[in-house]
Design brief:
Layout (H helix, E strand, L loop, with lengths): L3 H31 L4 H12 L2 H12 L3 H26 L2 E2 L2 H22 L3 E2 L1 H9 L1 H12 L14 H33 L3 H13 L1 H13 L5 H16 L1 H6 L2 E2 L2 H28 L4 E2 L1 H18 L1
Protein name: Calcium/sodium antiporter
Subcellular location: Membrane
Membrane topology: Multi-pass membrane protein
Length: about 325
Amino acid sequence: MTVLLPWFAVLLGFIGLVWSADRLVNGSAAIACNLGISKFIVGLTVVAFGTSTPEIIVSISSSLKGSGDLAIGNALGSNLANIGLVLGITALIAPLPIKSHTLKQEIPIMLLIIAIAGYFLYDWHLALWEGLILVLCVAPLIIWLAHSHKQHPEEVEDIESMKTSTATVWFLLGLCCLIISAESLVWGATTVALSLGISNLVVGLTIVAIGTSLPELATSIMSAIKGHHDIAIGNIIGSNMFNILLVAGIPAIIQPLTMTAEVFFRDFLSMLGLSIVLTISMVLSFYFSKNQHIGRLTGVLLLLLYAGYYTLVF
């Protein structure tokens, strides 16, 4: 029973993170709308942060416990999971249309953010000032997204309407459950790592990364099933940008990190490589194909590369 308890804590943490992140986002978005803030702005801020909330809370929790390597693993592993697992599975369910502005604007910005993070991680150390730069980049990113999406308001998700009192209850309940779930997940994951003799970094890259990517997976699959294929790629790209800036930046602010060489040469370069593969696939499909979408063949390729990364880790 003692051996199974950490695994139960991990499972309970996963379930709680998915449920509470949804409640927190819906509640806070409804409160903001009821206060007179436009749905467009709320959709670009509250909702955009929504699927990255589990990673952010886990990042803070693990950093405060001195497990910053788990937080960095979570940031890089979640981005790998978003592209390899989430987009891979979603593309198998339905073709994902490629928007011109996504390819010409959002993809270059994502690659620029990845390049900045790579420069900071190259020396295997993430200092306080580097973490501050990453976090401070969030504000201009949101401003740029708002400007970009003014021409494409249909790509901002709908916001559920509810009374302020109801929204406040869901917000507070979601926030409390999110914190408790993150604590459960971090404790369970670090205990499992200790018992199996593996590092917190590897646990963050694998178990925790997949668990905190569940909201993205659920959102993308439901969007594909409902026929809202046009927002899947944009959601993943946005989530990956926030993951790098916040989930990797916050731990360095709480406590500067010194990492092993694998973080850059294995994990970061794998994330960069998968991002480049996605970019090349989108360019080829957009300019040299009549369909202009990410299809099943690309989905299979992304899943195979993601499986290959796991082989590299273990």
